[in-house]
Amino acid sequence: MSGGWNTIESDAGVFTYLIEKLGVKDVQFEELMTLEPDELRQAGQIYGVIFLFKYPTGETRSDTPQDGAFDFSAAEELFFAAQTIQNACGTQALLSVLLNKDGEVDIGKDLREFKEFTKEFPAEFRGETLSNSDLIREVHNSFAKSSPFIDETQRAATEEDDVYHFIAYTSIKNKLYELDGLQPAPISHGACTVSEFPDKIIPVLQRRIERYPATEIRFNLLACVQDLRIRAREMGDVEALEAEEQKRTEWQWENSLRRHNFVGFVGELLKGVVKDKLAQGGDAYEKWVEEAKGKTKKRMEERKKQGSTGDDID
User: Fold this and answer.
1) Following CA atoms 210, 216, 218, 221 in sequence, which dihedral angle do they give, to the nearest 10 degrees?
2) Rounded Cα–Cα distance for residues 199 and 66 (Å)
3) How far apart are the first and last CA of the chain?
4) Does 3.10.580.10 match the CATH number of domain 12-258?
5) CB neighbours of 73 closer than 8 A, spacing ≥ 6?
């Protein structure tokens, strides 16, 4: 394979512009702050959700999932790809939703050709083909945070690392499926029509979160929905349309910042600050250093005291 896959953020703006660059039309992602069916319904036409969680690296694999049941026959009938490379799970999760919604969603020429090309492949070969797709990898990497310090593709995770994983949930042929490339097959969570999805998905997510200690709050949930500007235009809701356009502008700005690292700028800024402090005399410099140490220690102590319980998604 030519080149590696870098880590991308679980962010609605990142995922929305990523799929647009892949050619998907009239779809966006919305971050959900609570596990409430009504919040999911308010997002409009829903295609699926993507869930980010801390992956238990030391967990042993089992012949049966902890929730739901493996559906090996469905692995060949719907789009399901094994994850064959680290850091690609975010893009793989969003493709797991969208490539199974072809017909409901305009996924564009490139993804449609990719889906057709891999149609007869087993899950392992689909995963390999996805990992070797120059187009998908280059678009994925264009939304990665720029860092001069580490190549994210060079070191495999260990049990001591905090490793996070994306999985997809969607309704396909009136069944609720969990699509996780690290599992041997799609996981069925029972009957579920598209209209029932908001009610059926919440208990599944709650049961998954309950496997973790109450102090674990590092979860993120993104809904894959129809572009909210479409509904605003249809309803003639000028205020909602303006809010959505403003959100897109903010996403563009944030994404442009992600493509750059500011280490050089910060370094030069610090040099200037230190030079100024030294010019004021040794006592001023020492006082400044001690104040900074004290503020850092205070922030660390405050973070240790923080904790959360309940169904909020952080």
Assistant:
1) 20
2) 20
3) 35
4) no
5) none
Question: Tokens 């049941």 — which residue?
Answer: 69
Please tell me the number of Cα atoms within 13 Å of 265 on its side-chain side: 3
Domain range summary for the chain, segments of one domain joined by +: 12-258, 267-305
The DSSP 8-state label assigned to residue 165 in this structure reads E
Neighbour order of strands in the sheet with 27-32: 27-32, 220-226, 46-54, 164-172, 175-179, 187-191, 69-70
Question: How do strand 46-54 and strand 164-172 relate by DSSP bridges?
Answer: antiparallel
3-state SS of 36-63? CHHHHHHCCCEEEEEEEEECCCCCCCCC
Q: What is the pLDDT of residues 172-220, one digit of tens each?
A: 999 999 999 999 999 999 999 999 999 999 999 999 999 888 887 788 9
| Nearest one of 27, 40, 24, 48 to 230, comparing CA atoms | 27
Rounded Cα distance between 218 and 216, Å, is 6
Phi, psi for 118 (deg, rounded to 5): -95, 5
Residue 237, SS3 per DSSP:
coil
> 3 vs 42, 147, 299, CA distance in Å?
40, 16, 39
| Each residue's pLDDT tens digit, 142-177 | 887 654 444 444 444 444 446 789 999 999 999 999
| C-alpha span between 93 and 104 (Å, rounded) | 18
Residue 25 pairs in a beta bridge with 106
| Residues assigned a catalytic role | 89, 165
